[in-house]
Specification:
There is one protein chain. The chain has 650 residues and is α/β, with parallel strands linked by helices. The chain folds into three domains: 211 residues, no CATH class; 197 residues, no CATH class; 166 residues, no CATH class. 49% of the residues lie in helices and 9% in strands. Helix 4 crosses helix 7 and helix 24 runs antiparallel to helix 27. The longest helix has 26 residues. The protein is globular and about 75 Å long. The N and C termini lie far apart (95 Å).
């Protein structure tokens, strides 16, 4: 048919008119509020999930900013992401970060970053350029996806709600609209103004030069911008000795090992925990919830996942895992797996060193989205690995520098000068190793063994910490210990110091009455708990549900602690109460009293015996963590007072 034919237009399918999404009326006022709120920030994060070396580090820097409280409630994080739909692991990581930000009362704006020409060619060649090189669809942040921060009282989720929220987040991440880096930064400047761009905006990228250049053009100063590629280079350069060789305190692989350990501890929410036994219990719980069952079919020709006795999988039977052993081998993996399965199939006759040991068979699909070896090593697991396995360097470093007491058995490859042994002899040696390490596990996890050496190393050499401190330079001053923000600000902000001291006093008294009632087998949920604060003539009597409601608001808590008059003089300091979220979550959980009745009964018995490490239910685990935090805060306060002028704050 000729182009001039009158029927030509009718024969062609009409293109569908695709309108850009409308502007969200909440985004502009939300960003302006972040710009105007004292202490809040606007953090623009460029994140590429398609294979670059720095992928994932940017998200860890954001986690570090939340953990150090440099990214405060009322802030906004703008995620400019690309390649997130290419891999489930990165999609899960993004969804998890988004939800954690929201639960910390931090707003999240998300848009897709257009892939560069080089990205498109690298992934699909010139033939795939048209399909893979997605062009911008929106031209302003006001058309991006918005997830507003949650007020403190709405941030406590049940397991089912958490799964539902994460699923919704992942689905939303798969449907993002593309926004050019220049349009992103221009529209941000249009909303918050030039002064806020200079003072309030931080830009972090994993190698996104377009976003860095756009930020520079709109006035974000150099010291408020960081590219992970450049940061890695600079960090390693600064870690060199005067003659150019590696400094004694820094080895090339150290940063990589510690980054893996921090990521693993963050995954199981154990970064602030120092007890080796508690880290083990957190890891066991995470493995049981998320790992593949290695008793099932092989995955990609390998045994991957965890092997546990049936009594461990069945929580009602209450069998506690006392040791973890990871297996990272190639040639002997089937033999090891078959031996362990055979021992565990003996039912009640299974030896305790199999029944109470968790075996982690490592591989890319063992624990979706997580490096199984790193998570096992962070939990001080003993190892069985090939002699040349890459994980052996990590194990050696953790043993030498990280305070680990775990043991590693290395399997030499057959051939050469390596003597060959029969499968029967191999199983005999394997049996001895598993039994011996199980018997030594008490010494490994108890006996005063802590993760303090590991935490010291992470804080000193971690490139993630270096990146965070470059963006928030004032955060590295002083101690990172619990409560340091509260005490370092004491002279400048007496109200904050006074309110926090009273808050610690209030929570200590609530916990005391709570524990007394639980140990007497009383039903504490509907019993009034009366608190008489020092300096007040009358006490306040509320049930747990009402205490939880009170602590859901910074404003209400401050008014209760210091009084209406003093609060009115200092109502600009509403974000100064430390531990408030942790306390609220404990009170909320305690008021609901959810849990398996048998587990609650066991936890009450453990409370009476002061065996806090044996707690199983959310309520009692939250009690333990809150009590440890309060104890450390009191300890830090006493140390601080000894070092200060006694007249301060009198």
């Amino acid at each position: 048919m000729l182009l001039g034919s009158p029927n030509y237009q009718q024969s062609q399918p009409q293109p569908e008119l695709k309108l850009p999404p409308p502007r969200n009326p909440d985004i502009r006022p939300m960003l302006k509020q972040s710009a105007d709120t004292p202490g809040a920030s606007i953090m623009v994060v460029g994140y590429a999930a398609h294979g670059r070396e720095q992928a994932g580090k940017s998200l860890e820097v954001v986690h570090a900013a939340m953990r150090k409280n440099t990214l405060k409630a009322g802030s906004t994080v703008i995620l400019h992401v690309s390649g997130q739909a290419d891999t489930a692991q990165h999609l899960k990581a993004l969804a998890g970060l988004q939800l954690e930000l929201q639960k910390s009362d931090i707003n999240v704006v998300i848009a897709e970053a257009p892939k560069s020409y080089a990205d498109a060619v690298r992934q699909g060649g010139l033939s795939g350029l048209g399909a893979r090189w997605k062009r911008p669809e929106i031209d302003s942040l006001e058309q991006a996806s918005l997830h507003q921060g949650m007020a403190l009282g709405r941030a406590v989720f049940s397991d089912e709600e958490e799964i539902g929220a994460l699923t919704t987040s992942r689905q939303g991440l798969e449907k993002l609209h593309s926004l050019d880096a220049g349009d992103l930064m221009n529209s941000l400047k249009d909303i918050v103004g030039a002064q806020a761009m200079k003072e309030k905006v931080r830009v972090l990228t994993d190698s996104n030069h377009a976003l860095q250049h756009a930020a520079s053009r709109v006035g974000v100063p150099k010291n408020h911008r960081l590219d992970q590629q450049q940061n890695d280079v600079m960090f390693k350069m600064k870690s060199k000795g005067p003659a150019g060789g590696p400094a004694a305190s820094f080895r090339k692989y150290e940063a990589a090992v510690l980054e893996k350990m921090e990521a693993a501890l963050g995954t199981i929410k154990a970064k602030s925990i120092t007890s080796r036994a508690d880290v083990r219990d957190k890891a066991v719980d995470y493995f049981l919830r998320n790992a593949r069952n290695a008793a099932g079919p092989k995955i990609e020709g390998k045994t991957q996942g965890i092997l546990c006795h049936d009594s461990v999988w069945d929580r009602d039977k209450g069998v506690k895992v006392k040791n973890i052993v990871y297996v990272s081998v190639q040639s002997n993996q089937d033999l090891i797996a078959a031996h362990i399965k055979k021992q565990m199939s003996k039912g009640e006759d299974t030896p305790p060193y199999y029944k109470e040991t968790m075996f982690v068979f490592c591989g890319p699909e063992a624990v979706p989205g997580v490096d199984a070896v790193s998570l096992a090593q962070a939990a001080d697991a003993d190892g069985i690995a090939d002699a040349g396995d890459v994980s052996n360097d990590s194990a050696a470093y953790l043993s030498e520098k990280g305070g680990s007491r775990a043991q590693l058995i290395k399997l030499e490859a057959d051939g050469g000068n390596v003597p060959t042994i029969t499968p029967e002899k191999f199983e005999e040696q394997l049996e001895e190793y598993i039994k011996f390490q199980f018997e030594k596990s008490v010494e490994k996890y108890e006996s005063g063994n802590t993760t303090k050496d590991l935490h010291f190393r992470m804080g000193r050499t971690d490139t993630i910490v270096a990146a965070h401190d470059s963006l928030f330079p004032n955060s590295s001053k002083g101690s990172e210990k619990t409560g340091s923000v509260m005490y370092d600000q004491r002279e400048k902000d007496y109200l904050a110091w006074k309110a926090n001291r009273k808050f610690l006093e209030m929570m200590s008294r609530i916990l005391k009455q709570f524990k007394e009632a639980e140990m007497q087998d009383g039903e504490i949920q509907d019993q009034p708990i009366e608190i008489k604060m020092s300096g007040k003539k009358e006490g306040t009597s509320l049930i747990l549900k009402e205490w939880a409601k009170l602590t859901s608001s910074q404003e209400d808590t401050l008014k209760f602690l210091v009084g209406e008059t003093e609060y009115g003089k200092n109502n600009g300091e509403k974000d100064k109460i430390q531990f408030l979220r942790m306390a609220h979550e404990f009170l909320h959980i305690a008021a609901k009293n959810d849990g398996v009745p048998a587990d609650l009964k066991d936890d009450k018995a453990a409370l009476k015996e002061r065996n806090y490490k044996d707690f199983k239910t959310k309520k009692f685990i939250a009690l333990r963590e809150l009590e440890e935090t309060i104890f450390e805060a009191y300890e830090n306060d006493w140390k601080h007072q000894e070092a200060q002028n006694p007249a301060i704050g009198a």
